[in-house]
Amino acid sequence: MASSTALTSKVESGSPYQLDKPQVGKATTALLRHIKSKQEEKEKTATKKTLIGDNDSDDDEDTPLSNEAIWLILTTKKHVVDKNRLKPGKISVPHSLYSSPSLSICVITADPQRSVKDIVADSAFPSEISSRIEKVIGFSKLKARYTSFESRRQLLSEHDVFLADDRIINRLVPTLGKIFYKSSKRPIPIRIAKIEKEDGKRVKKDPKKKAPKEERTAAFASPLIVAKEIERTLQCTPVQLAPATTCAVRVGSSKFTADQLTENITAVVDGMVQKFVTKGWRNIKAIHVKGANTTALPIWLASELWVDETDIVEVDPLAVEGDAKASKKRKSTGDEKLLEDKKSKKSKAADEGEDAAEVAARIEKLKKLKAQALEDGEPVKAEAPKAEKKKRKSTS
């Protein structure tokens, strides 16, 4: 009986493209070691503490020196142009980026903001979450109050996390400006709208039927649902793609261990493949991991530069051979033409040289005749060209 040997085995997800976890672990270990050595070097070369004692704090948790962000850089083969995938989103990670007990949260909500403030102050709302929410502001007040660059910068520095109602998330870009969207504190969408149901099924709203303007108010979910959504969001990392081939997602900080970073990276890559990147793994070109001030370390590189097999152009060898012969023929005809041009130029130059020699000989002869005439004292008579005498016709 012949023994059968399996040539390949199907992976769990059904895709031949997978992250190599040992490779990810090596990259994260090397990155954390490099960041730590750089931090120790900076601490040694840093200036001495002031005599007043402004820098005597032993808590360095929030300082950028000891808590540097770690980013996942994902490069795609083709641009992501689907509008649904370009909307701000989030991916759940096993190790939260917002686990600090002193976390300050700002909630930006659709109008009216009083409804959300009442939800946060409700007795059914968990106190461990409400104690972190320091500010609730509606969209209209945000737009009216924070118009200057300085006021937006102050708002950015006052809070650690910004959560925004997903109904107004796309309208925040011109309102908050580049001071927010060039930082790592971009608003994270939360779904806190009230969902109308009938017989346990969600009721779809007719976009053509709109309520009167005075009756248009945002409806919000119950306190328990809102609290659960905020708690779930704090266990996620924000994702916002641009219509380009590169995006960056924060996966941790330098305080994480290599195993924690590896688990977060795996979760983020799986989420990007399933939800955000068109055609999944087939459209991913490279994955790197880097710190805020370090070079990017590759953890996955594609062996193919195309997405579909239809993108590959098959070349016929006979056609290539024919093109080569045609190019040689064109080259030979071009060389012959060039030689003919050179020959014609040479013959023209030779003719011009002969004419110039005759003129020079005639001038030299005239000079000799002039010199001889001066010696003899006779006037110089130049040789006139012989002209044929034309017979005049008699008019008689």
From TrEMBL:
A Pfam family per the record: Ribosomal_L1
Extent of Basic and acidic residues compositional bias: 37-46, 324-351, 378-387
InterPro entries tied to this protein: Ribosomal_uL1-like, Ribosomal_uL1/biogenesis, Ribosomal_uL1_3-a/b-sand
SUPFAM superfamilies named among the record's database cross-references: Ribosomal protein L1 (SSF56808)
Residue spans of biased composition, Polar residues class: 1-16
Span list, region Disordered: 1-62, 324-357, 374-396
Name by which UniProt lists this protein: Ribosomal protein L1
Source organism per UniProt: Penicillium argentinense
